[in-house]
């Protein structure tokens, strides 16, 4: 009797009406978005559920946020196709903040002792200095600080905190490298399409908005792919060339050798059509740095025997000058004959006189595009920096530039010390490549603001933490090392 009464009073309720109502509301919302925003509304209709899922995933696992941020860094250049900087730019900032929040929410799983490394202390010290720059009396418009502080110190500090405390495995490192190479390969293909097939309408519009003066030289297109500009594209392709060429030399299996050889050739030609001469120094500095880091005299001699004739041909001959891209690379080795380089030196002379009595600079946010936007009449905004280090010098003074260079030197020096202690052969080779690439990019930044631009900045933020704390993944003992070497 009791069972019959229970079944009669607890019949499952028909909830189909609820799902019907929910479906109608979703359809009405989608129709309203599409009707008012067009294609963007359609993207929002699809993107909102995906965004909600990503939000939950990132809060539950910060590693998801790291990889979403990494991929968004490569996608940022696509904003020229939707004529807006807000969707992806806002998504990137939100993703980084959410990932940092996730780290705090999952604090019990994080290893907070990892924040004791010298590299982190150097970043914190630089961050504090940039925060104090808010008090710089020379700054004409203080809110501009927030626009440049992200590239100067904030993003690097956030990423370092996440990378240090989060439990990262070797598989995660492999995935980071694969993600970088896949995006670089796609970028190279898109660059070839631009150079040999033609530009999309959005890309032509981007050139017409004022970018043609730097990307169309003597009737030749400086390929920029789906990155912010040709300089960023050239830097990425030079970095990928360096990585692939070294992997080609190190790999033992023929199949892997052929894959990396093919990638190296693709990336090198993509670098050539970018017309970014300064990116050549990623290779010029990166290869010798790698050879020295390996501490193998045989490799150094072989590398010198290969590199010396190639550099001699570029320096002392005119072989290949009929090809514009080869000629452009050659001019990088003759800066005294380059009119644009001489103009840069002249601008630096003017800045030296202006900054002579400003040891703390003109204030963060006073130069480059941000300065031109918020304080166009300020002296710092009227001279293009044309260099990442010059930009730091203008905005933070000789004191700030010195601190910044000391921070980079700390990363390179401490990274070298830690890399030389690694016993795992795979990890040692990978970390030496990342460190060599970091050295190459820091040299290139004398001529370009590459270190502040996506996706190179994101990759370097990640790489510097990897090679300065590489012992975390060095689980090879002396006995297992003997087996590997045998």
From TrEMBL:
<feature type="transmembrane region" description="Helical">
    <location>
        <begin position="40"/>
        <end position="59"/>
    </location>
</feature>
<keyword id="KW-0472">Membrane</keyword>
<keyword id="KW-1133">Transmembrane helix</keyword>
<feature type="transmembrane region" description="Helical">
    <location>
        <begin position="299"/>
        <end position="319"/>
    </location>
</feature>
<dbReference type="GO" id="GO:0016874">
    <property type="term" value="F:ligase activity"/>
</dbReference>
<feature type="transmembrane region" description="Helical">
    <location>
        <begin position="426"/>
        <end position="446"/>
    </location>
</feature>
<protein>
    <submittedName>
        <fullName>O-antigen ligase family protein</fullName>
    </submittedName>
</protein>
<feature type="transmembrane region" description="Helical">
    <location>
        <begin position="175"/>
        <end position="192"/>
    </location>
</feature>
<dbReference type="Pfam" id="PF04932">
    <property type="entry name" value="Wzy_C"/>
</dbReference>
<feature type="transmembrane region" description="Helical">
    <location>
        <begin position="17"/>
        <end position="34"/>
    </location>
</feature>
<dbReference type="InterPro" id="IPR051533">
    <property type="entry name" value="WaaL-like"/>
</dbReference>
<feature type="transmembrane region" description="Helical">
    <location>
        <begin position="66"/>
        <end position="82"/>
    </location>
</feature>
<feature type="transmembrane region" description="Helical">
    <location>
        <begin position="258"/>
        <end position="287"/>
    </location>
</feature>
<dbReference type="InterPro" id="IPR007016">
    <property type="entry name" value="O-antigen_ligase-rel_domated"/>
</dbReference>
<feature type="transmembrane region" description="Helical">
    <location>
        <begin position="117"/>
        <end position="135"/>
    </location>
</feature>
<feature type="transmembrane region" description="Helical">
    <location>
        <begin position="392"/>
        <end position="414"/>
    </location>
</feature>
<feature type="domain" description="O-antigen ligase-related">
    <location>
        <begin position="264"/>
        <end position="405"/>
    </location>
</feature>
<keyword id="KW-0812">Transmembrane</keyword>
<feature type="transmembrane region" description="Helical">
    <location>
        <begin position="88"/>
        <end position="105"/>
    </location>
</feature>
<feature type="transmembrane region" description="Helical">
    <location>
        <begin position="147"/>
        <end position="168"/>
    </location>
</feature>
<keyword id="KW-0436">Ligase</keyword>
